[in-house]
Amino acid sequence: MIKLPATWFDGQTSSPQRVELCFDDNGRVHITGPNIANSYDIATVKSKPRVGKLPAQFIFSDHTICEVSEHAELNAALQLLPTRSFQDVIHKIENNMTAILISLLLAVAIIFVILQYGVPYGAKLVAFKIPIDLENRMGKDALAFFDKTICKPSGLALDRKLQVEKVFAETLSHIDTVPIQLHFRDCGKMGANAFALPSGIILFTDEMITLAEDDRELIGVLVHEVGHVQHRHILRQILQNSVTGLLLVLITGDIGTASSFAAALPTLLVQAKFSRDFETESDNYATRYMKSRHISPSHLANILDRLSKQNGDKESHIIGFLSSHPLTEERIKNLNR
Fold it and tell me: Alpha helices of 114-232 — where are they, by DSSP H?
């Protein structure tokens, strides 16, 4: 028999009464106190999950409640109730520092796996399912943003522009890709740069054209950016940086929800930085193309190296305004193999 001091509430008023809670050997629970003598089948008694050191609550079939503070026999009494196992495990974890630390480490590990693998996979899945009309709108809005805030019409000499367009048209004729729209701009402080936008828009700054000492360098840059387009790196990076929006699309299955990104896309594009994996994937894409056309990938390495020295920062803003281009020296080394 287990006896516990308890506080009893009648379920109708807030006035508590001191009582004794008794668990007998016949599967009955008794409440005794001033003017109280109730008895219940233990199978009908429930308890709320315990939270830390707060009193345990026993709930009876007539909606009365008994609260019991910490007591030597409290856990033994709780074990007599039906379906107690899960609640007991949770309570033990809450009051065991080792268990808390293990749970915390497990939670961190799960979050790491989700961010490291789950989010990139989900971003790739969503990026390739975004409707083409929506992607076109994203690209146009992003280009309009740059034209209003950073860039102005190209100042390239007409003959040079026509020459570069001819080289690029010849290059793209050998690539099975989404339609590529080439744009030339004078983007001031952005300097020598080239970057891809959604829907196959690729923008070259005048400074990038001027920096090139060989048109094969520009071919390397172009195909690198085509690689970003082919693999939907722009959308995937934005989605990965917008985890909440990505999860919403994955959970609801409503790709139309992605339209919410369109309005914020220009700002997200400015903040986006391509990961090392994305840069490597685009470098490899460019390398395969250049070798297939008997062009040495070292031409891409050369302009990367020149850009790196010009910028004075070997780990940021080398080719793409949208990219951090991590470990540029390693990328140059790989391209020169």
Answer: 119-127, 132-149, 158-172, 206-211, 215-230
